[in-house]
Automatic annotation (TrEMBL):
Residues 81-167 form the Core-binding (CB) domain. Residues 189-386 form the Tyr recombinase domain. PROSITE patterns: CB (PS51900), TYR_RECOMBINASE (PS51898). Gene3D superfamilies: 1.10.150.130, Intergrase catalytic core. The keyword Disulfide bond does not apply. The keyword Cell inner membrane does not apply. InterPro entries: AP2-like_int_N, CB, DNA_brk_join_enz, Integrase-like_cat_sf, Integrase_catalytic, Integrase_recombinase_N, Integrase_SAM-like_N, Phage_Integrase. It comes from the Bacteria. This is Site-specific integrase. Keywords: DNA integration, DNA recombination, DNA-binding. GO terms for molecular function: DNA binding. GO terms for biological process: DNA integration; DNA recombination. Belongs to the 'phage' integrase family.
């Protein structure tokens, strides 16, 4: 067994039964270990064992851990230091800027203030359960109640990913996330969906306004808001009637930036009806006219959806202005993103294969499409079953309810 047990005398200390002794033999364990972070051999001493048997048991456990490659550095690592380093050395170099900012906000506002002072190795599932309960009840920074279950769920995802990283780097043996019981479960948001007639009405109301092109792209082609606002003239192929989607406009730290699409699958080329290209063409012609009128005052960056002076539109402002426009026109309340859901529902109820719909929408997997539009796919399955029954049992003339 590698290591050394040292014996020494201490004065005026409590023994194992809690009695004060003027003089008492105590034991220390000196051992070497390999630092998982640096790979270097180090020596340390664990003091304070009141019996030699306790010291021997500790040394045996240390040896077993090292033999099974399960040893963890004895030095304390605070949760706040670990999260700060993880954010810098892993998150910042592996995720998009918008994702990084979301992680950073969660860590700085919710995780470090509540768990930062704890030793990472001593962080327990009870600590995490208490954190989630606190955040749900009174976690708002302004002191006005709790956070939404969705925000707490996002906090849960960030912490889970961080602690999984800690396990891989052998900073902890088992993640305490495996035994928590307070996992937040937000209700799925189901926004309104516009029917085909409602979409046509909306397009008619917004004809020749700044809203017309993005509404057509979202409700007919399934583009996300940022994808709509990032389209430039060279992304449109009028000859082949295709639209190339390779970027999005995103608000990052109060600055509007061009960033990659949400996922690799979101880089795509889609087709669209001729009517959509007619709408786009009218908007481009209006932009060119504005350029002629404003001359050097026009900011020509090729944006299709832009202000009259050619400048791009802040996605946050666009969402708010869209909502205000819907309210002013006294239309059925709908978020701009719900137009994309309306497009998906129209595609699936029209018989478009779910794989094709998933590719058009730019989802990273078919399962995301199926999960988001369960109600639509369920109806399609029912209709398919009826059609098979009609064919099999010769009920082509009989309608099945």
């Amino acid at each position: 067994m590698q290591g050394q047990i040292l014996e020494e005398e201490r004065f005026n200390v409590l023994d194992k039964q809690g009695k004060m002794r003027k003089k008492l033999k105590v034991y220390s364990v000196r051992y070497r270990y390999t630092d998982p972070e640096t790979g270097k051999r180090k020596r340390t001493t664990k003091r304070g064992f009141l019996t030699k048997a306790d010291a021997e048991a500790f040394l045996l456990e240390i040896n077993n851990q090292q033999n099974q490659n399960m040893f963890f550095t004895p030095k304390a690592v605070l949760v706040k230091d670990f999260l700060t380093e993880w954010l810098k050395s892993y998150v910042e170099v592996n995720v998009r800027e918008t994702t990084y900012n979301g992680y950073k906000r969660i860590i700085e506002k919710h995780l470090i203030p509540n768990l930062g002072g704890l030793d990472l190795k001593k962080l327990s599932s009870l600590d995490i359960d208490r954190l989630y309960a606190f955040l749900l009840k009174e976690g708002r920074m302004d002191g006005k109640g709790g956070l939404s279950p969705k925000t707490v769920q996002y906090t849960h995802r960030v912490l889970n990913e961080a602690l999984s990283y800690a396990v891989k780097k052998k900073l902890i043996y088992v993640s305490p996330m495996t035994s928590i019981s307070n996992t937040p479960k937000p209700k799925k948001y189901r926004g309104n969906i516009y029917t085909a007639n409602e979409i046509l009405q909306l397009l008619e109301i917004t004809k020749d306004t700044i809203y017309e092109v993005p509404i057509a792209l979202a409700s007919i082609c399934g583009l996300r808001e940022g994808e709509c606002l990032a389209l430039q003239e060279n992304d449109i192929d009028f000859n082949n009637m295709t639209i190339k989607i390779t970027k999005q406009l995103t608000r990052v730290n109060n600055i509007v930036k061009v960033t990659p699409p949400k996922s690799e699958e979101s880089n795509r080329i889609i087709n669209a009806p001729k009517e959509v290209f007619d709408i786009i063409q009218r908007r481009i012609e209006k932009n060119h006219l504005n350029k002629q009128l404003l001359e050097n005052e026009y900011h020509d960056e090729g944006w299709i959806i832009c202000y009259d002076n050619g400048k791009c539109i802040n996605p946050q402002y666009f969402s708010k202005n869209f909502a205000n426009m819907i309210a002013r026109k006294k239309l059925k309340k709908i978020r701009f993103h719900d137009l994309r859901h309306s497009c998906a529902s129209l595609m699936l109820t029209s018989g478009v294969a779910i794989k094709t719909a998933s590719q058009i929408l730019g989802h990273s997997s078919i399962s995301i499409t199926a999960d988001l539009y369960t109600h639509v796919t369920t109806d399609n399955k029912r209709i398919a079953a009826e059609q098979v029954g009609n064919t099999l049992f010769k009920k082509s003339d009989e309608k099945i309810n």
